Amino acid sequence: MAGDKFLIWGGEGWVAGHLKELLQKQGKEVYSTTVRMENRESVLAELEKIQPTHVLNCAGVTGRPNVDWCEDNKEATVRSNVIGALNLTDCCWLKGIHITVFATGCIYHYDDAHPIGGKTFTEEDPANFSGSYYSATKSKVEEIMKQYSNALILRLRMPVSDDLHPRSFVTKIAKYEKVVDIPNSNTLLTDMLPASILLAEHKDTGVYNFTNPGAISHNEVLDLFAKYVRPGFTYKNFTVEEQSKILKAGRSNCELDTTKLVKKLKEYNYEIPEVHKAYEECFKRMAAGGTK
Ligand SMILES: NC(=O)c1ccc[n+]([C@@H]2O[C@H](COP(=O)([O-])OP(=O)(O)OC[C@H]3O[C@@H](n4cnc5c(N)ncnc54)[C@H](OP(=O)(O)O)[C@@H]3O)[C@@H](O)[C@H]2O)c1
Prior knowledge:
Protein name: RmlD-like substrate binding domain-containing protein
Bound molecules: NADP nicotinamide-adenine-dinucleotide phosphate
Number of domains: 1
Helix content: 40-55%
Order of helices and strands: EHEHEHHEHEHEHEHEHHH
GO molecular function, one term: methionine adenosyltransferase regulator activity
CATH topology: Rossmann fold
Largest sheet: 6 strands, parallel
Number of strands: 8
Shape: globular
Pfam family, one: RmlD_sub_bind
Strand content: 5-15%
Number of helices: 11
CATH architecture: 3-Layer(aba) Sandwich
InterPro entries: dTDP_dehydrorham_reduct (IPR005913), NAD(P)-bd_dom_sf (IPR036291), RmlD-like-bd (IPR029903)
Domain RmlD-like substrate binding: 5-176
CATH superfamily: NAD(P)-binding Rossmann-like Domain
Distance between the termini: 39 Å
Radius of gyration: 19 Å
CATH class: Alpha Beta
Structural class: alpha/beta
């Protein structure tokens, strides 16, 4: 919208890069920064310098090579994902700036009330997964951050790009020796990032499950990958119990309810495809782009 000025936090990150490219393609005024979120004076100075109307927060630690890292680096995790994330939202609030937070839906796991294929998790459901330090801190931060009237919190899960970037969920599971086979909500960036911009532009606030509708299992993803991108690709399965032996922290498996998101996006004439359909289109684009 006229006069909008976007500032992306965590500017060197994977999601941030996609977002910046998209905003530039849309002809929007966009800046990015790598200022540390926990450094209050620097954050305030950056907001003063750029004077954004919208901050898009893609910064945070997710751990390298994976979230197990957070188990051994709790202070660093808190500094970025708790103190930093809250500080940035607070500074934006003080300055009257809308902030969109790229958060996580990995705060739930299937339980008796929400079994596989059954009732899904809405934005109102309290988090029930704290099997990793990453997830445990993310859900607590969300509880506090959602009190801010300038904050839009988007819960991504297992983001996927149209290439085989190492951060993409498909790249990760295609490389694993063995995968579990559980249906999950996934966020296909090509479908979802334009939606995040629409919500930000309209200054929507509150929490949204931010995934394609539906759930898809690891096997279904890899079967489609073999069908469209890498014929002959094979994989092996193991159980969640076997998987837990090779991981330091637990992993969230769940399906999120996207009713609230779908309804809101309808107001802007934007539709997100169901996850199986979305993957088919994603893999067709991947193949057309020459990825093998
Ligand atoms: N990728 C996923 O699987 C996934 C899943 C669900 C949700 N998300 C959400 O999406 C966000 C972005 O993910 P991503 O995959 O793009 O991660 P990424 O590639 O690791 O990018 C995160 C960026 O944030 C920066 N950063 C970390 N701590 C910071 C701090 N305290 N202040 C300022 N910048 C900081 C990092 O910079 P340095 O490297 O210099 O520290 C990095 O450039 C995550 O924070 C997460 O909440 C991601």
